[in-house]
């Protein structure tokens, strides 16, 4: 081939859409082309990306791939056909229940945190409906709660009631109590919340839930596979799990700090009776009896198998080792960032946190973000307050000093060039952070989504 990419320049059949290639291509060539395309992505391997990818080293990643690959074609929809997948899922869920001190707890695996959360909201809606609570159900959410709850609210018609967080980015308990109405079915807290890595006062929220005979969900999607180990390592971690009587369910992602393959999360309830309201079953389909635990029909068995494999390979010992390394690195990031004059927001308990510029007129944090991106870091910008989000994994052990050196340069350069605030992403984020008119931003986001699907 003279020009290998020419082979992949496709013709269009109508104005908008691509034609399926008429001829088959050599598989090796297809893979080669994809390997080239992949290089345009964010560099997660060398610890230059935060969130999105959780890399616990090449040896573990190769192991994950092998476990996934073994069950590449099996289907988690019907465990009757694949008893080993049934065993893996049941055992993974059981071990998570135990981590969370849920002696009577029961749950399922799902494809991710969003699905776990959507299942929890649907479960409570249906549980309270079964008790004859028929008015428009409401759930109380701290402002920092993950958007998956808002998504669930829209999908399942449960009204979200937002309450503020305090100066330390923790749900305001008094405001939560005030927000309770006869229609409230659920209070939610995060352990911790994604934006600033701060844990809501789960014990206080759960006490409220119990007092008002409503349910309490803890979103431990990011913390679930970290906090129990941090506690064992001696870090000051407040209780967040079933050891608190009012907590009735917990979502925990395995594909984040559990270091399993993507497509793996767990939703656990205090009782199997509650879990029943998650299941979908039908006996009158011409295709036969149908029973599905969650949103999806066909389920990749690979992510279930890889989760079980990871639990076996790491065990408590392996997780403790990984989290010790992560916390040591996170501490280096935090300390270095503070020494450069930036401010860590709140008192984040684990390896997720955000930092801002205490003198935004001198050093604009979004300009710093743009400069860091030019230096090859994938930066997560946040809006309220204006800050940069970090999520530390073992991949960052080797990149922390490099990050801090670049951050120092970015800080100095942004101080010397305040005009950069009107350029690039800094201009966009600065505008979004300032403009109180949401309709304009919504339009922008809808357009962004439409453009995403242009070939
Ligand atoms: C990541 C995350 C979610 C959503 O999980 P996905 O796997 O991305 O769907 C929910 N809550 C918190 C706190 C998270 O960090």
Notable characteristics:
about 450 residues, alpha/beta, Aspartate Aminotransferase, domain 2, Aspartate Aminotransferase, domain 1, 13 strands, about 15% strand
Topology (SSEs and partners):
Elements lengths: L26 H12 L19 H13 L12 H17 L6 E5 L2 H18 L7 E5 L5 H9 L2 E5 L9 H7 L4 E7 L11 H10 L3 E5 L7 H6 L16 E5 L11 E5 L2 H4 L4 E6 L2 E5 L8 H39 L3 E2 L7 E5 L8 H10 L5 E3 L4 E5 L8 H17 L7 H11 L3 H15 L3
Parallel strand pairs: 2-3, 2-4, 4-5, 5-6
Antiparallel strand pairs: 1-7, 6-7, 8-9, 10-11, 11-13, 12-13
The site of pyridoxal-5'-phosphate has 14 residues, from helix 4.
Account of the protein in words:
The strands form three sheets. The protein has a seven-stranded mixed beta sheet with strand order 1-7-6-5-4-2-3, sandwiched between helices. Helix 8 (about 225-230) links the parallel strand 5 (about 215-220) and strand 6. It is α/β, with parallel strands linked by helices and about 450 residues long. Helix 3 runs parallel beside helix 10 (about 300-340) and helix 4 crosses helix 5 (about 150-155). Helix content is about 40%, strand content about 15%. Pyridoxal-5'-phosphate binds near residues 190 and 265.
Short description:
This protein is an alpha/beta fold. It is 41% helix and 14% strand. A seven-stranded mixed beta sheet has the order 1-7-6-5-4-2-3, with helices on both faces.
């Amino acid at each position: 081939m003279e020009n290998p990419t020419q082979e992949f320049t496709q013709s269009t059949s109508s104005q908008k859409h691509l034609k399926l290639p008429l001829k088959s291509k050599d598989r090796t060539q297809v893979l080669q082309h994809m390997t080239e395309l992949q290089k345009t992505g964010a560099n997660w391997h060398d610890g230059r990306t935060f969130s999105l990818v959780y890399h616990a080293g090449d040896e573990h990643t190769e192991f994950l791939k092998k476990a996934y690959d073994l069950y590449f074609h099996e289907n988690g929809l019907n465990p009757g056909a694949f008893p080993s997948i049934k065993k893996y899922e049941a055992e993974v869920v059981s071990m998570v229940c135990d981590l969370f001190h849920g002696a009577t707890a029961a749950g399922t695996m799902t494809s991710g945190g969003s699905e776990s959360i959507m299942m929890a909201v649907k479960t409570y809606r249906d549980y309270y409906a079964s008790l004859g609570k028929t008015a428009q159900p409401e759930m109380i959410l701290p402002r920092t709660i993950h958007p998956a709850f808002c998504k669930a609210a829209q999908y399942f018609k449960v009204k979200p009631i937002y309450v503020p967080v305090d100066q330390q980015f923790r749900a305001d308990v008094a405001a939560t109590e005030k927000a309770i109405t006869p229609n409230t079915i659920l209070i939610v807290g995060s352990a911790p919340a994604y934006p600033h890595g701060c844990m809501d006062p789960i014990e206080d929220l759960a006490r409220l839930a119990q007092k008002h005979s409503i349910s309490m969900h803890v979103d431990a999607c990011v913390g679930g596979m970290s906090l129990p180990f941090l506690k064992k390592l001696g870090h000051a971690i407040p209780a967040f799990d079933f050891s608190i009587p009012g907590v009735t369910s917990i979502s925990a992602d395995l594909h984040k700090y559990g270091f399993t393959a993507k497509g793996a999360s767990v939703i656990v309830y205090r009782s199997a009776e509650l879990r029943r309201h998650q299941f979908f079953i039908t006996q009158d389909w011409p295709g036969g009896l149908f029973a599905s635990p969650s949103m999806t029909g066909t389920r990749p068995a690979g992510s279930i198998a890889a989760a079980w494999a990871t639990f076996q390979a790491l065990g408590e010992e392996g997780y403790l080792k990984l989290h010790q390394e992560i916390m040591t690195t996170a501490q280096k990031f935090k300390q270095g960032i503070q020494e450069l004059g930036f401010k860590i927001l709140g008192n984040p308990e684990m390896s997720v946190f955000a930092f801002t510029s205490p003198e935004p007129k001198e050093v604009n944090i979004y300009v710093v973000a743009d400069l860091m991106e030019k230096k090859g870091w994938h930066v997560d910008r946040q809006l309220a307050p204006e800050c940069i989000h970090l999520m530390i994994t073992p991949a960052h052990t080797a990149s922390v000093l490099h990050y801090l050196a670049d951050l120092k340069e970015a800080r100095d350069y942004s101080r010397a060039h305040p005009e950069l605030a009107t350029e690039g992403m800094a201009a966009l984020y600065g505008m979004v952070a300032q403009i109180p008119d949401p309709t304009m931003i919504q339009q922008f986001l809808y357009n962004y989504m439409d453009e995403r699907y242009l070939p």
